[in-house]
Amino acid sequence: MKLIRPFSIALVAVSVMAYSCGGGGSEESTGADNAVLTPAETPLSLEDTYKDDPVYIAGLAKIQQSDCPSCHMVERKIVGPSYAEVAAKYETTDENIDLLASHVINGHVGTWGEIPMPAHPSLSEEDAKDMVRYVLLLKK
């Protein structure tokens, strides 16, 4: 019984702090310049942007079925670079697609530091190219 009153007071205090720090705001989001974004101006997700693109669909499916997500994420570096970093570094050309697909299949070290990318010899060249095309779509 002695704990209920202090707990209630603490709960009210936390609620007031959360509300006063922005916890009770409206549903509209603001951009970096604090301008209110309407739903029509809200940036689309990758899925919404490329939902009908066969390159995106095929590449994403092959990446999700592989071990790629254990070392790479779309926007954040884990062990290897993020897909966004790779897309920013390489133009979408046939030469770069061939080069990066060979790095995926044969493994590679040196471009992104000393941690080697392991080889994936069981992956077909066409599957590796589909995966690389997907990654290069993520260029901002």
Rg calc:
23 Å
- Following the backbone from N to C, one meets helices and strands in this order, namely HEEHHHHH
Tell me about the largest β-sheet: 2 strands, antiparallel
How many strand segments?
A: 2
Which structural category do the helix and sheet elements fall into? mainly alpha
What would the principal axes of the Cα set say about the shape? globular
Show unreliable segments.
22-31
Strand content: under 5%
Q: Count of helical segments? A: 6
**Chain-averaged pLDDT:** 81
Distance between the termini: 58 Å
Strand order of the largest sheet: 1-2
Give a quick set of tags describing it.
single chain, 140 residues, mainly alpha, two-stranded antiparallel ribbon, 6 helices, globular
Structure description:
With 140 residues, the protein is mainly alpha-helical. Helices cover 49% and strands 3% of the residues. It has six helices and two strands; from the N terminus they run αββααααα. The chain has helices at 4-23, 46-50, 54-64, 83-89, 94-106, 125-136, and strands at 29-30, 36-37. The protein has a two-stranded antiparallel sheet. A hairpin with a 5-residue loop joins strand 1 (29-30) and strand 2 (36-37). The protein starts with a helix and ends with a helix. The model is unreliable at 22-31 (pLDDT under 50).
Summarize the structure.
The protein is an all-alpha fold and 140 residues long. It is built from six helices and two strands.
Explain the layout of strands and helices.
Elements: H1 4-23, E1 29-30, E2 36-37, H2 46-50, H3 54-64, H4 83-89, H5 94-106, H6 125-136
Antiparallel strand pairs: 1-2
Helix pairs in contact: 3-6, 5-6
